[in-house]
Amino acid sequence: MSNLTKNNKTTIQITITIIVIAGGLFAYLNWYVAPDEVTERVKMIANTPDGCIAESSDGFSVNIGPCDAEPGEFIIGTYDAKIKERRALMNPTT
């Protein structure tokens, strides 16, 4: 086998490896890291400088961002639904 053929095979293998790794990273980012936003009616718990804390329909407290609602009010809020999954991964005892 000539050196040119060996170099071409090596270059193709490296290129395929890079494409597979990049594709895997892209899939990981889209599946696990990208937010899954949900908009629903939530009950306000507190209004903090970091945003409004509300209780979702399944009882989780979520940050819905800045708002002007008072605690106890029901408003429509958008939050990241994957926060519950991430919270469970960080605290497996619950």
From TrEMBL:
Chain segments annotated as transmembrane: 12-34
The entry's keywords: Membrane, Transmembrane, Transmembrane helix
Transmembrane helix recorded as keyword: yes
Top-level taxon of the source organism: Archaea
Name of this chain's protein: Uncharacterized protein
